Amino acid sequence: MADDTGDWSLYPYDPNKGAPIAFAIIIAVVGIYQIYQSFFLYHWPKFGSTMAWASSVWLAGFICRSISIRSPQNVGVFIAQYVLVLIGPPLYAAAEYFILSRLLSYLPYHTPIHPGRVFSTFVLLSTIVETLTGSGAGNSAGSGRTEAQRSVGLNLLKAALILQCFIEALFFSLVVLVERRCRRAGIFPKRVRTVCCVLYVTSAMIFVRCVVRTVEGFEAGRCEAGREDPYCGPVSRNEWFLWTFEVANITLFVILLSLFHPGRFLPKDNKVFLDPHDGKTERIGPGFSKADSRAFWATVVDPFNLTGILSGKGMVLNKFWEEAQPVYTGDDATAADDQPFVVSQAAKHDQTV
Question: Where does this protein reside within or beyond the cell (predicted)?
C-alpha cells in the first residue's frame, strides 16, 4: 500500500507513531510495580512470573512496532510486532487462571475442578492458542505472502481466536458457578466477592478482545484471491480498533490486576482455606491433592472428574474441611481487607507436622 507521500508501506493506514511508545512506557512502569507487589509485598511469585513474562512480550511488541512504523517496508520487523502484540493478551489471560486456581483452593468445598489443575488445564489450552496464533500470524502478516500461505495462516488464526473465546467463556462460567455455590451456602465474604468481580471484569476484557480479533480474521478471509491489499474490512483498515479494543483494553486489564492484586485478598499458601461453617475462620489443611484420591495422571487428564460424574460415582472426595484443622494464625483476614497474608511461625510449623 502507498502512504500519502507515495512511498510503499506494509500498513493500510498512516500508523500512530506516539502510541507504541506511550503504551510501552505504561506497561514497563506497571510491570515493574507488579514485580514488586508479587515478589516482595504479597509473595505470589508464580503470578508475578506470569505477568512479567506477558509484559515482556507485549513491551517487545510495542518496541518492534515503533521501529516498524519508521521502517514500513521492513517485512521482518512488521511480522515481529504483529505476532508479539497479538500473543501478549493470551499470556496475560494465564494470570487469571492462577487467580481462579487459588480462589478454588480457598473454597475447596465449592470447586467443580481440581484447583491444582486449573492453571495447567487452561495453560495447556492457551499454549495451543499461542501456537496457532504465532503460526497463523506469521503466515498471514504482510503482503509478501503467497495466497496459499495467507489462507493457511488466516485459518489457523481464526481457529486460535475462536478457541480463545471458548476458553474465556468456560473460565467465566466457572467463576459464575463458584459465586452461585457461595451464595447458595450463605457464605460469600467481601474478599471472595472482590476476587469474583475482578475475574468477571478481566475475563470480559479478554473476551471483547477475542471477538474483535475474530471479526478481523473473518474479514481477511473474505479478501478476493490475488488481491494485493490483504486488508479487507474496517477492523483491519482502521488503527483505532487496535488501540481501543486490544491495547487500551488489555492495558486496563494489567492496571486492574495491579490495583486489585490477588495477594491482597487471597492467601499465598494454597493449603489455607475458609471455614465452610462460619465463613470467617481461616484454616490450614493438607491441600486439595489429599482430598482427591485419584492418581496424579488422572487429575491431569480429567481435572473435572468427568469419568466419575458420567459413571454415577460423582466427585468422590476426602472432605478434610469437615474435619478439625488448625486455625490459620497469620494476619487477621477479617480486620483489614487490604492487608497481605503473612503466615506465622506457628502456622508454618503446623503445615510441616
Answer: Membrane
